[in-house]
Design brief:
By secondary structure, this protein is of the alpha+beta class. The protein contains 16 helices and 12 strands. Among the domains are: about 55 residues, 5' to 3' exonuclease, C-terminal subdomain (DNA polymerase, domain 1), CATH 1.10.150; about 150 residues, Dna Ligase, domain 1 (2-Layer Sandwich). It binds magnesium ion.
Length: about 400
Amino acid sequence: MMERIIFHVDVNNAFLSWSAIEMLKAGSKVDIRNIPAVVGGDESKRRGIVVAKSMPAKKAGIKTGEPLYMARRKVDNLFVVQTNKESYVKYSKAFYNILCKYSPVVERYSIDECFLDMTGMEMLHGNMLELAYKIKDEIKNTLGFTVNVGIGNCKLCAKMASDFEKPDKVHTLFKNEVKEKMWPLNVDDLFMVGKSSSAKLHEMGINTIEDLAKADVNVLITRFKSMGMMMHNYANGIDDSLVEKPVPKNQGIGHSTTLPNDVDNLSDLRKVLYKLASMVGMRLRNEGKYATVVSVQLKNNVFFSYQHQKTLINPISSNEDIYDVACELLKVMWKKDPIRLVGLRVSDFTDKTYEQISLFEDFNKKEKRDKIQKALDEINKKYGNDTIKSASLYEKKEN
Ligand SMILES: [Mg+2]
């Protein structure tokens, strides 16, 4: 199998940089990146904390998250600028648009971070390291702020790499570099290792990423459940999640639900999907549409969110068809981690189902399902939702 090439592009000190640029554009004579300055929440609304800080402010000992009044004590004439969400969204979009020129698969991971799948792009773009420098410089020259680019064979490694020395740098963390570049780091630096996990790991004598990579995975699973497996994989540079282009929100019908308790078994997750499929399906049919893309989103107990989607040959609209595809996606994507939120979305609509003969789908079966669904909808409309459900949904074997 071809090794994947993933870029993770991360804006350096995004909010402070973006505020600086906005001020310069408005005619400011100072660049707040070069003086002791912070971006802070609104003090009048009691959100007066440091959201971001310049390098000189950092050198003065100012910390992100501390109250502004404390930060002011550390520096005379500290320059405080309010967060400006509108301009942040504008720069985030401009940043994303530049990245989209270089890969068809760009995932917006957060307001100032994107993943790019660059696998197989050497033919088009040439040397990947040179390309990373080109992208980094293009952003700096056209938008005025710096980024770090991390390159790896998976998302985890790319993300870890972009976090090495900052700012305005390109780093690689390829498979064969994991031992040399990542293992010496403190286990706290590993993506997804939060404060509570890190305390427990140190207690167990696991201090570096190398310790974690070499730890007995069964011990980790006993202590951390599914997170233990994930951490062990990450420490070994293993992460097979895909860079995924998100479905634009306004282009689909979707529902998501936050679960009252974390769910970590397949049959309960399927039940949630069934509910969501009924809600989504009903709205879809009310609009007289058929969908050709189904996507499922999962968010786990540490708020790590991932999604998977499938494009169909034949458009669908019945609950059962939507549910089937959703279950297929679930099976492929679910990492056995405790799930807190499940989302289901259908998109890429057509008005009619194609009369297309597919070797892989039984069209007659589908047509029959659509007819049954229509009858069910009519009964439910007349007598109230959920009067009749398609029994087979509950009897589906877990294969
Ligand atoms: Mg950043």
